[in-house]
Amino acid sequence: AQTVTQSQPEMSVQEAETVTLSCTYDTSENNYYLFWYKQPPSRQMILVIRQEAYKQQNATENRFSVNFQKAAKSFSLKISDSQLGDTAMYFCASDAGGTSYGKLTFGQGTILTVHP
Amino acid sequence: SAVISQKPSRDICQRGTSLTIQCQVDSQVTMMFWYRQQPGQSLTLIATANQGSEATYESGFVIDKFPISRPNLTFSTLTVSNMSPEDSSIYLCSVWGSTGELFFGEGSRLTVL
After folding, report:
1. CB-closest option in B42, B96, B106 to A102
2. Measured between CA atoms, how close is A50 to chain B, in angstroms?
């Protein structure tokens, strides 16, 4: 069974600063996707960034980037120039690999608060 | 991208009753997924709704408790049967997009008294 672990229940950062959220996972698959989703108080789940395991290059999406360490099964999210709108719950997730698209295993989440 | 609409957005239900949640997608999709998010918790996959066949349930979830319908490629329903306070959760409908990501509806928040 897959597991995804987020060891930081809560994090806080000052506006315009950088913060890193940690995530580790365990899978026996070789090809899989990794995701970071954001859930603001409105509860709508929004994809922040996605990484395909076969790609060595770390994914970036504007202010968001990941540090993907496949051998260590680590997938951290870095948010640069933090904004008040980044305040949300962040979930790390992995899919089951193979043809199991859509079947994601989520971590417990990290509540991020951005302070003005 | 996919636009997913869920009804109801929220509801308060009495113990022992059942509630059906509807999910409508703006495009045809092969598989739809139902997730549960218990208060303050992460998301857990309940089942995969396949058009034209029975839903596939994950460990810990059974059809008698969470019957699912999938009458066509854009619509699905999830029923929460014989509800108890432990069923108080957000239930989310989702679909896998061609861009390789899971799109979610806004969720249905159920409170069982």
Report:
1. B96
2. 8
Q: B100 vs A103: CB contact, 8 Å cut-off?
A: no
A24 bridge partner residues = A5, A74
Give the domain CATH number at A15.
Answer: 2.60.40.10
> Residue B74 pLDDT more than 80?
yes
d(C-alpha A104, C-alpha B94), whole Å: 11
Domain span at residue A86? Answer: 3-115
Interface test with A, best of B30, B42, B106 (most A CBs within 10 A): B42
Q: For residues B66 and B11, is the Cβ–Cβ distance under 8 A?
A: no
Residue type, A15: E
Q: Which residue has the higher pLDDT, B96 or A99?
A: B96
Q: In this complex, do A102 and B95 lie within 8 Å of one another by their Cβ atoms?
A: yes
Closest CA to B40 of A112, A110, A71: A110
Write the CATH number of the domain with boundaries B4-112: 2.60.40.10
Residues from chain B that touch A103, judged by Cβ atoms under 8 A, are 33, 45, 48
**What is the arithmetic mean of pLDDT over B79-96?**
96
Q: What is the pLDDT of residues B12-71, one digit of tens each?
A: 999 999 999 999 999 999 889 999 999 989 999 999 998 888 899 999 999 999 999 999
- Return the residue of B nearest to A93 by Cα: B43
Q: How far is Cα B88 from Cα B104, in angstroms, rounded to an integer? A: 19
Residue A98 has pLDDT above 90, yes or no: no
Mean pLDDT of chain A: 92
